[in-house]
């Protein structure tokens, strides 16, 4: 491989000297190789590192090929062997001499491997195979020196583990606020600024990333993270309507949809659908009608979420997405309209200090919420609405999970189910 001179900036941190430059996608594909013997001599440990290279690179490839505004943070590349040389430039700017800029010469015999960015390297490699026109695009790279001996491997392993240990995923709240590819995040932001139910601090953001609402919050309808989760459930139904299996797509499938920004027409169509959904929800469920009529007051939500009787199920962040999931899944299975389905669910008992929610959502003695049973809420609601929605296998599974939530033996569950069937308001 021929030698190249790369414009770079030389820097240091701790005892590490590094060089910041750019590589073209073609140079990444040609000159950067997977980790082999650079971190371990043990084949089992090398295999472990290679297994960590999951199929996530396929998503990165798709992102590069489909998202015109794709962008990545820098790759950290370790380099050894060959004869990399640093040719420093003296730069005088406004009377100050700078010596950190220059050219890094690679003679083509170097071995370069990613310490941070394995998936990005493989994604780039696969993307340019499908679209060679991407070869001249550039990505920032940070070169660090590597010595392929015991001490050098230990030093590089420490950098490898540190970069991965302290690399934190983006917080859910930041995704909602900033993500320009996630359809649900984009549309949720639009609604937060324009839709009556969500404006005027009716949706509470928590800096710590909590979905729960404080007992002192007598104003908010729900929390920001809960609204996103609920809108994602609606999006799941929206996308699942063409699912021939008659079931909601699983979370993995939906996550794939949300990785790439759709065309503006598709965004507008989902936003219209979401507005229609919440219009119906606000007009059909009695508590919503009353809440919106009093939304200018600072205590608008107190009647529907408090420590006396617990309030209404859909004013509790733990339960709102579960109610919406039950509505959506019922619609998908039965083919009835959202409006008709909501009418049926609006007749179910929603005061959480009343049966069937005592012991499931509400601790009567302590007058506190129970959050450990959230996985059974949607199934309970669907059973009350129409137990014939379930297949026999699903019904058996529900009976077991319901018995576990109530902490009763499975042979006593039929008695509890009889009470559950009468949980519609008269």
**Helical segment tally?**
16
Largest sheet: 7 strands, mixed
Q: What Rg, in angstroms, do the CA atoms define?
A: 28 Å
Strand order, largest beta sheet: 4-7-1-2-9-3-8
Query: What share of residues is helical?
Result: 40-55%
What is the structural class? alpha+beta
Basic shape: elongated
Mean pLDDT: 87
**Beta strand count:** 13
Low-confidence stretches: none
| Range of strand content | 5-15%
Q: How many angstroms does the end-to-end distance come to?
A: 81 Å
Helices and strands, in order, run as EEHHHEEEEEEHEHHHEEHHHHHHEEHHH
Secondary structure elements and their pairing?
Blueprint lengths: L3 E10 L2 E9 H7 L11 H9 L4 H11 L8 E6 L4 E4 L2 E3 L2 E3 L2 E6 L4 E6 L1 H13 L7 E8 L4 H16 L6 H7 L4 H12 L8 E2 L17 E2 H17 L10 H7 L6 H21 L1 H8 L26 H15 L3 H9 L15 E2 L4 E2 L7 H10 L5 H15 L6 H8 L6
Parallel strand pairs: 3-9, 10-11
Antiparallel strand pairs: 1-2, 1-7, 2-9, 3-8, 4-7, 5-6, 12-13
Could you describe the 3D structure shown?
The chain has helices at 25-31, 43-51, 56-66, 118-130, 150-165, 172-178, 183-194, 224-240, 251-257, 264-284, 286-293, 320-334, 338-346, 377-386, 392-406, 413-420; strands at residues 4-13, 16-24, 75-80, 85-88, 91-93, 96-98, 101-106, 111-116, 138-145, 203-204, 222-223, 362-363, 368-369. Helices cover 43% and strands 15% of the residues. It has 426 residues and is an alpha+beta fold. The mean pLDDT is 87. The protein is built from 16 helices and 13 strands. Strand 5 and strand 6 (96-98) form a beta hairpin. A seven-stranded mixed β-sheet has the order 4-7-1-2-9-3-8, with helices on both faces. The chain has a two-stranded antiparallel ribbon with strand order 5-6. Strands 10-11 form a two-stranded parallel ribbon. Helix 1 (25-31) crosses helix 4 (118-130), helix 6 (172-178) packs across helix 7 and helix 8 packs across helix 10 (264-284). It is elongated.
